[in-house]
Amino acid sequence: MRHPPIAKIDPRPHPAAVDPRAGRAGFWKRQARTWHWISGAICLLGMLGFAVTGITLNHAADIPAEPVVTERQAQLPEPLLAELAAGPEKGRSDALPPAIAAFVEEALGIGLSGRPAEWSPDEVYVGLPRPGGDAWLSIERESGAVLYERTTRGAIAYLNDLHKGRHTGKAWSWFLDIFSAACIVFCLTGLWLLQIHAGKRPSTWPLAVAGLALPVLLLVFFVHA
């Protein structure tokens, strides 16, 4: 009858048992790797998108874009003209009167929620800026004629405005803040990992210093105020 082989026991003690600092160092090294890959996974597609739009922004003048202008018109019904006339003669309000806003939204298929209105004796103007273009709405106070105009400048302009956070609203602004925080974590944990492995990779710090020195030299010698 054959007996199963006896497992060999390594007589050497675990490094952490000999030196507690080795155990702590291993713990923090694992933490650095964990936070680095988590933040990298969160930032991956976003960083790719921002890198691409960084190139398109840098060459925005070289990328042709033909603006496309769209106009829509409507006419306020008689009952709403009185409500329009009752508005302030001049100034700014947080929004159009609800009944007028509801009619315009249905007639033109646009959203006016949260859009302030600018009042003058002749018209009411609502700016509707958007990424990659612009839009506005004008209502003549005497006749009730409604004119909506939208300008689009193409997909590249749209992506460039997303990069800059231009006219993108609060939700995108929050995303940019969270994404930037994740990028900071990714970079700092990457620097931490560089420090951990620098002893085995002599070129680590020369390359890191070169990555800092290159943009500084370009700013000092080639970028003029």
From TrEMBL:
The chain crosses the membrane at residues 34-57, 171-193, 205-224. InterPro entries: PepSY_TM-like_2 (IPR032307). This is PepSY-associated TM helix domain-containing protein. Keywords: Membrane, Transmembrane, Transmembrane helix. It comes from Rhodocista pekingensis. Residues 1-21 are annotated as: Disordered.
